[in-house]
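To: structure subgroup
Subject: Chain for Friday's discussion

All,

I'm putting the inputs and outputs inline so they're searchable in the archive.
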Amino acid sequence: MARIITYGTAALAMALASCASDTSTQLASTGTDNVRQCFRLEQARSVTYEAESGLKIDAGLGRTYQADVEGPCPDIARVSQYALIAEAGRNREICVGDTALVQPKELNQTTAPYACRIKVNSVTR
């Protein structure tokens, strides 16, 4: 019985090793990685809105995240500053593919009584 377990374990290890090498080859050939592209709220230096491209979030280190507004967002084009808010449960981290909230700030630095939902689509370096 011990031999069967030994051979079974060896066969399983070989099968897993072959899967792992296939996956790493796939990742290398497509040029992608499995690392999520994220930033923490405190890294966001600025949030700006451009009518043709949506919101741009400067997260420092040469990283700019692009996000689209989902649904109506009054005054988003009129104001020049925004408070960025991570969704509940995100632990102050926002990643590509996540939704978050922005809250327009008036010139007197008071925030609007509403927040707008955005979806982070990409990052450029």
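Points worth raising on Friday:
The chain has a mean pLDDT of 75.
The first helix runs from residue 2 to 30.

D.
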